[in-house]
Design a protein that fits this description.
- The complex is a heterotrimer, with two copies of chain A (about 200 residues) and one copy of chain B (about 300 residues).
- Chain A has about 200 residues and is mainly α.
- Chain A has helices spanning about 15-20, 25-45, 50-60, 65-75, 100-105, 115-130, 135-140, 145-155, 175-180, 195-204, and strands at about 80-85, 90-95, 160-165, 170-175.
- In chain A, helix 2 (about 25-45) crosses helix 4 and helix 6 (about 115-130) crosses helix 8.
- Residues about 1-15 of chain A have low confidence and may be disordered.
- Chain B has 13 helices and six strands.
- Chain B has a three-stranded antiparallel sheet with strand order 4-6-5. A two-stranded antiparallel ribbon of chain B has the order 1-2.
- In chain B, strand 1 and strand 2 form a beta hairpin.
- In chain B, helix 4 (about 75-85) packs across helix 7 (about 150-170) and helix 5 packs antiparallel against helix 6.
- Residues about 1-55, about 60-70, about 110-115, about 215-225 and about 290-295 of chain B have low confidence and may be disordered.
- Chains B and C meet through helix 1, helix 2, helix 4, helix 6 and helix 7 of B and strand 2, helix 6, helix 7, helix 8 and helix 10 of C.
- Strand 3 of chain B pairs antiparallel with strand 2 (about 90-95) of chain C.
């Protein structure tokens, strides 16, 4: 698999890009262009980062097609404000680093404020892990917005690990060591004790 | 699929509870009726009690019951269905046979579960009232009272209108079903994280309290909400439920000035009202702070609050 | 304000685009290019759509600069998979319509379905606003579950505003601009027409 080789080159163009794309016919190039757009769509739509394996599976790509399509995608993104970022858990699209000052100026609250919906979701995952998406919806009684999960993945506070052996094999969500760091805990057992929710619910 | 079914159940408690098909919660076994799939060999149950025979003039094939289970949104919806099934104009609705059908249907319910079927029973009593009126000889002098049958038909019409409108609404191109927002991540953590604050784990617990204690959206909303009441209620609940009891004074959060104290006080009142918190009588105990105070203060008894849940 | 003029042209290229940008010097063009990138960054980073007024304020733009920068942004987005969409509450970036099927196939969990009960409740509020809870119960003939209201509040589609001057002063419910955004409407008058009574009678 080539996707782990260029982990550290997120913001550089891979050196062999142009040579890899040079010898293509127009038709091949158009095909690759389409593939790169499909990859971009999936990255924009996914809650969690997508690994090379998952991308290849969903789009039926060969390893070579993936490499070439990603190269094309990087080329196209260079004209805009996004960059393709590869983390341990997969690829994701993020706003290029040089715009961080602009974002912080316009949305100073963007980083610090955790919405109630986000906190509730995180709490359910932290206390009841491993949980599926529908477990969270069941506890909270409302549908879970993709945007909230995406934010939790972005912060690196949750990860997908394993599947529940039930219809559709939904992914199981866990909290990460970064979550513990952010909340000043050294292990999960240090979480404040769970309130007796059923007692509260019965009375209120 | 699973999520969807859960939502349906949560959203339609009345309709979903009224009729339960075996393993209704197991989405594997229920084929979506509107997918056109046939459900075979389904024994019908109404509230755990299996129904041996259906009301005679209301034979509904078992497939239709699956539709009923998922599709009917209440007694008006069910009445509309009966009217349609009898193939009559709504305004010409033959109230007697329809009432008979409705009541025959409802009578199959296990008496133990009648309280759950409140909405359906309310409609049943309305129908009985109309039926009675139709059977009694008409009073000679026309009364000013509204004709209950006309009123019912009006309600049915209004409901039918809304039902169609809701289907039209559902046909609109909708965000997060037909079109999707693009999601991107913020610039690198290290760049943005420079000023990331550290969070207290109590935020998590407070959010759970808030989720459970959330008023039913019937409370008045306060425009300027520098110190959110819900947050304070959650935080005080956490402190009291963890430690069992606290002195009133300690619970008044003074870090946010007067407003903070006032909101804390209101939060405590709210919790007392909901009987989650009680006052412990501590009249004769001496309080450490009273020792250094003058006589005037010493008659104020320290107040201790206790978690009751 | 020019931002309301092209409401209906979300997916078409504005007709006067090229002529508006033709007469620019390289330097002016570069400046506009930067502005269009800043707009793109803010739209990506914002949790809600951004109005023309907000964009102009944060980026200190004249009305003309905004129009030109948005035109450039549309031009650039055309090469990728996103589209600039103008809604009741401002501009937002969404994945171009022709990729919806791909997303629905790969991420079926992103497709939010609404129960009939929720849709009926929402319709009563949308068509008859302002309404109280008991108005909704009267029309639907069913006790209103607080779960449905909670979901509608959670999505930000409805809000309480004012009270009905009757016993108990019940709160009045209205739909919000987010409701319009979610259903692709720019104002309430664009709601699909209510069926008229005669049609209903014929239907039954």
């Amino acid at each position: 698999m080539t996707d782990t080789d260029n982990t550290k080159q997120d913001y550089d163009k891979p050196p062999s890009l142009s040579s890899a794309l040079l010898s293509l016919t127009d038709e091949q190039r158009q095909h690759l262009e389409d593939l790169s757009k499909h990859i971009e769509v999936l990255l924009h739509a996914s809650e969690a980062p997508l690994t090379a394996t998952v991308l290849r599976k969903h789009l039926s790509l060969t390893a070579k097609e993936l490499t070439q399509a990603l190269a094309l995608l990087r080329q196209r993104l260079d004209m805009g404000v996004l960059s393709l970022h590869e983390t341990a858990s997969g690829y994701r699209l993020q706003i290029a680093n040089n715009y961080s000052a602009l974002i912080q100026r316009v949305f100073p609250q963007r980083q610090e404020r955790l919405s109630q919906a986000l906190l509730e979701t995180l709490s359910v995952i932290a206390y009841k892990q491993p949980v599926t998406r529908s477990d969270i919806e069941h506890v909270r009684g409302v549908t879970l917005s993709s945007n909230i999960l995406r934010q939790l993945f972005d912060k690196g506070w949750i990860e997908e690990k394993g599947y529940k052996e039930t219809l559709g094999r939904p992914a199981l969500l866990h909290t990460t060591p970064q979550f513990l760091d952010a909340f000043g805990l050294s292990e999960l057992s240090e979480l404040p004790p769970m309130p007796d929710i059923s007692a509260i619910k019965a009375m209120s | 699929m699973q999520t969807e079914l859960k939502n349906e159940q949560a959203a339609l408690p009345k309709a979903a509870l009224l009729l339960t098909v075996p393993q209704a919660s197991d989405s594997l076994d229920i084929k979506r009726a509107h997918d056109g799939s046939v459900i075979n060999d389904m024994s019908l149950r109404i509230y755990q009690t299996s129904v041996q025979h259906l009301p005679e003039d209301l034979y509904v094939p078992p497939q239709a019951f699956a539709i009923w289970l998922e599709q009917f949104a209440g007694p008006l919806d069910f009445l509309l269905y009966l009217v349609k099934k009898n193939n009559v104009d709504l305004t010409q609705m033959p109230i007697l046979p329809i009432t008979e059908q409705y009541l025959a249907y409802i009578s199959e319910l296990d008496t133990e579960h009648f309280e759950l079927a409140g909405d359906y029973l309310l409609m049943a009593s309305t129908l009985i009232a109309i039926k009675t009126e139709l059977l009694l000889p008409k009073p000679e002098t026309p009364s000013d009272e509204r004709d209950p049958k006309a009123e019912l038909i009006e309600r049915l019409e209004e409901y039918a209108q809304i039902k169609v409108a809701s289907q039209r609404l559902d046909n609109l191109v909708r965000l997060e079903r037909d079109v999707f927002l693009a999601m991107v991540s913020m610039p690198g953590q290290d760049v943005m994280n420079a000023e990331l604050p550290s969070y207290s784990p109590n935020l998590l617990i407070d959010s759970l309290f808030k989720m459970q204690l959330q008023p039913d959206y019937q409370m008045h909303t306060i425009k300027v909400d520098a110190v959110p009441l819900a947050d304070r209620i959650a935080s005080i609940s956490r402190q009291l439920s963890t430690d069992g009891e606290h002195s009133f004074y300690e619970l008044l959060d003074k870090t946010q000035g007067k407003i903070g104290v006032v909101v804390s006080f209101v939060a405590i009142l709210e919790l007392i009202k909901r009987q989650l918190v009680g006052i412990v009588n501590t009249e004769l105990e001496s309080h450490p702070t009273t020792d250094n105070n003058d006589a005037e203060d010493s008659h104020i008894k320290p107040l201790t609050l206790q978690w009751l849940a």
